[in-house]
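Minimal example, chain plus adenosine-5'-triphosphate.
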Amino acid sequence: MKPQVLVIGFVVLLAAVWGFLPPFTVTLLCYIGLYSLVAVGLVMLTGVGGMTSFGQAAFVGLGAYATAWICTAPEAAQWLSFVPKGLYPWVGLALGLAVTALIAWGLGAVTLRLSGHYLPLGTIAWGLSLYYMFGNLQALGGFTGISSLPPLEIFGLSLASPRMLGIVIWAVLLLAIWALHNLLDSREGRAIRALKTGRLMAESMGVDTAQQRIKLFVLAALLAAVSGWLYAHLQRFVNPTPFNLNIGIEYLFMAVVGGSGHLWGAVLGATLITLLKEQLQDWLPRLLGTSGNFEIVVFGLLMLLVLQRASGGLWPLLAGFAQRVLKLQPPPRALATAGAASLEQRPLPPAGEQILKADKVTKRFAGLVANNAVDMDVRAGEVHALIGPNGAGKSTFFNMISGVDDPTEGQVRLMGQVMQGKPSRAFAALGLGRTFQHVRLLGERSVLDNVALGAHRRGHKGWIASMLRADRAEEAAVLAEAMRQIERCGLAEVAHTPAASLPLGQQRIVEIARALAGQPALLLLDEPAAGLRHLEKQSLAKLLIQLRAEGLAILVVEHDMEFVMNLADRITVLEFGTVIAHGTPAEVQANPRVIAAYLGGDLA
Ligand SMILES: Nc1ncnc2c1ncn2[C@@H]1O[C@H](COP(=O)(O)OP(=O)(O)OP(=O)(O)O)[C@@H](O)[C@H]1O
């Protein structure tokens, strides 16, 4: 049985019983739907994107207050005199979304620059600010709030009762989950998944990570605002209390307890927390003999327990259980790659053309000169090796020529263009593909997914197209290209295996396949042979020789001298940040300065 069957079953069951449920249950389900909508945004933001926000309740407030103000303020009625009254809530929705997008964009631009625990602290700051703004603006009714909101109407049909509005709430929620599921299963989704742990890597694949983070932040805020809009028309009354920081923390509980990396975890978390809160608010005052928000204490303990026992939340446990009991099969990755169009190709530069030029590149860290006027170039159709003892400055130089860092002095030119101040993704766009000294893969994702991320810059479909599944032709082409590179690198057997379960040597090859998927003109390989067994090294050398013959320029940083000497056309040797030798392997091996630098080493 496919997991989708369960979802369809759930929706059908909900639809079938909806008309017969007691009013109290319907109202409870309405709230669960509304909370799920906010929590699903948090799953995207926090669970998938790695940005923790305590302030989502404030965005719910923006959505609720925008419609409350439009529907009740005399000034709004004056401006909207040409609009039929029944449409006011829809104007309120448009205003809420616009204001939320604007504020979220502004807040995101400032807050998302913060890293580590400063980011969640930042969200607490604006969560509080917006809450007090709602309470202190007289136009919004102060802490008393705004009452007498009209019900929603769709084509003249009133949605005054929770039973009617609940249908809209759940339809919106299911639509949102469908769209977000599609987004995650796309080129843009792969970029989003890289935000949490692989930003530097994603930039090197051509992803604008700052822009993706802001978009994710705005998306989560918009989902919260829609929830607020529906909430306002369900309650027909708004005041600041449901939008305070406590509730912001509760939304986070829902996402984390349910399973912050899973869209359905949001629904599970919202259901559990809402039901638990309901029960605890009844029982705790009776048990303790005094009233108060004791449920918050229980939530805190529950959160600790979940984080300790099931850090991924309860959804993966439930899904695992269902898989065993119901024998659910995750759908086989439909690789409709046969007949897929191919991605944009660009011709490789002719052999011998200068691809990369480092001109007197110097890098200083305070007093330490890590690179001292390093000159080198890499040409199409050659393997150039950069070697040197530990601490010689190879990684620093690698960072200079890949856009991770800028030289203090000197110049890097890629394809003839001066690259000073440009980010890694600009290097990728010009044709640079790279691997990392410490492997940077998305461990839980398959090899195919990881390699497909390498082709990111060759696709163009954006978020909306991905959400609406209008990206399938391009996605098939991206996956076909990824599969081609996987086969080329001899990884076909493990294409669907999670990258983290491969031995380190194979993970390095996955990184090469990922770099190749970007169709580079220049390949930078940082210690590609480290961790490889003898036979694996031989097949890597064979692959690199083939790539060189195809016209790629390859720069390798490597400690394995046998590997380097058998492969490289030219070698540059660094010591204490300075080039001490340059030439063919034979010339370098005969150089007295190199022999002295490697005295005791295995230069042979
Ligand atoms: N961000 C930094 N701040 C200060 N010093 C740094 C920084 N990065 C590197 N260094 C210093 O610069 C020098 C060169 O380091 P680098 O990592 O480039 O050498 P390497 O040749 O790559 O060494 P290895 O082979 O061990 O990786 C070292 O002395 C190192 O301590």
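The two ends are 60 Å apart (CA to CA). Residues 365, 368, 370, 388, 390-396 surround adenosine-5'-triphosphate (CB under 6 Å).
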